[in-house]
Amino acid sequence: MKLILKFNLIFALVFSAGLAGAGYISYGFLQRSARQQVAQQARLMMETVLSARKYTSAQIKPLLETQQAHQISFLPQTVPAFAATESFGYLQAEYPDYSYKEATLNPTNLRDRAVDWEADVINTFRNHEGQKEIESERDTPTGRSMFLARPISAAPACLECHDTPRKAPAAMIRRYGREHGFEWKAGEIVGAQIVSVPMAVPLSMANAAFRTTMLVLIVVVALILAALNLALAVFVVRPVSRVAQMADEISKGNLKIPELPVRGTDEISMLIGAFNRMHVSLSKAIEMLDRKS
Question: Same structural domain for residues 253 and 194?
Answer without folding.
Answer: no
